[in-house]
Amino acid sequence: MITRRGFFKLVGGSVAGIMSLGGYALAYEPLARLSITRYRLTPPGWTPGLKLRIVALADLHACEPWMSVNRIAAICRKANELEGDVTVLLGDYASGMNIVTQYVHSSQWSKALATLQAPLGVHAIMGNHDWWEDRTAQKNGGMDTFGHRALANVGVSVYANRAVRLEKDGHGFWLAGLEDQLALLPGRKWGRKRMLGLDDLDGTMAQVTDNAPVILLAHEPDIFPRVPERVSLTLSGHTHGGQIRFLGRSPVVPSRYGNRYAYGHIVEQGRNIIVSGGLGCSIAPVRFGVPPEIVVIDLG
After folding, report:
1. CA–CA distances in Å: residue 243 to residues 34, 61, 211, 278
2. C-beta of residue 256 within 8 angstroms of C-beta of residue 224
3. Distances (CA, A) of 28 to 6, 33, 151
4. Residue 61 in domain
5. 123 lies in a domain?
6. Is a pLDDT exceeding 80 seen at residue 223?
7. Range name among 22-36, 88-102, 178-192 with the lowest pLDDT average
8. How confident is the model at residue 31 (pLDDT cuts 50, 70, 90)?
9. Structural domain of residue 218, as residue ranges?
């Protein structure tokens, strides 16, 4: 039988444990940790002899104190040290939280991202929050967001349903980037009854004019069931791995497929997608079991 002293010791230990766990999830993992997650694969249809390293950053959600300009700059320095042939940015540079001390302007986070370097360039797509936080873009129902303009102004190539052929060691490959699938919010003030995407997978793939392998950048992974076998690898962000993850599953994932495309390397019917856990936080500044990460993919 537990004594009164034993009971209070148990309660005290439980409270201390909960407080420690909360501190880890609120402070240490989202603010102090940075993982390098590596994948190595040779997808079907990959060109023999083509060895390509991709460094991928997703979901910065720039804001104080969680993702400051200084922290973005430090992440970029680490990314440069990983010696990728090409660096890709998978969207959501704008903050998606109200629990902030200060919002970081696009001119600031883009300047930090401009320090990224790779022999074959730095290439970016937009995410849903980059559209949702831009009232002018919502009103216009399209055109460029402040994110498009900020990145273009610092020399980063921005893809909006566009495919470009690149080459390494005499071997060609295509980099294709979709515009966001959740770009336009519904609402009476916007004159829209439902959310609209601006992605054009068919039109983007129509720009591919030879048999070189295709790498597709798509912020939300939900498009993956529609991606043709012609695409060697799809790279996505958006889900943050659920932000809270236990035993390989997340209780809440911003995807109509739940945990199916929540995180990591998924292979379906011979097709490959890698979903980054991202770097920042959305909705709430909490991460547990899925620390901020830079993704490195070695192909071939």
Report:
1. 14, 13, 38, 9
2. no
3. 31, 7, 30
4. yes
5. yes
6. yes
7. 22-36
8. low
9. 33-299
Average pLDDT over residues 181-206: 96
User: Distance (Å, rounded) from C-alpha 128 to C-alpha 236?
Assistant: 12
Considering the entire predicted model, what is its pTM?
Answer: 0.90
DSSP classification of residue 273: E
User: How does DSSP assign 156-177, residue by residue?
Assistant: -EE-SSEEEEEEETTEEEEEEE
Q: What is the average pLDDT across 248-273?
A: 95
Asked whether the beta carbons of 132 and 138 are under 8 A apart, the reply is yes
The mean pLDDT value for 203-207 works out to 98
Q: Return the structure tokens found at 132.
A: 């949702």
Domain containing residue 83: CATH number = 3.60.21.10
> Across 181-263, where does the E strand assignment appear?
214-217, 231-236
Bridge partner residues of 96 (DSSP): 282
Angle between helices 146-153 and 106-113 (to 10 degrees): 40
Number of domains composing the chain: 1
* Calpha distance 23→21 (Å, rounded): 5
Are 69 and 112 contacting, i.e. CB atoms less than 8 angstroms apart?
yes
Residue with tokens 């370097």: 117
For 158, other C-beta atoms within 10 Å of its C-beta total 20
Residue 6 lies in a domain: no
Position 25 in a domain = no
Among residues 162, 215, 161, 201, which one has the least CA distance to residue 50? 215
Share of the chain above pLDDT 70, in %: 89
Q: Which residues contact 219 (CB under 8 A, 6 or more apart)?
A: 90, 91, 92, 125, 126, 127, 128, 178, 180, 181, 236, 237, 238
Q: How far is CA 145 from CA 58, 159, 236, in A?
A: 18, 12, 20
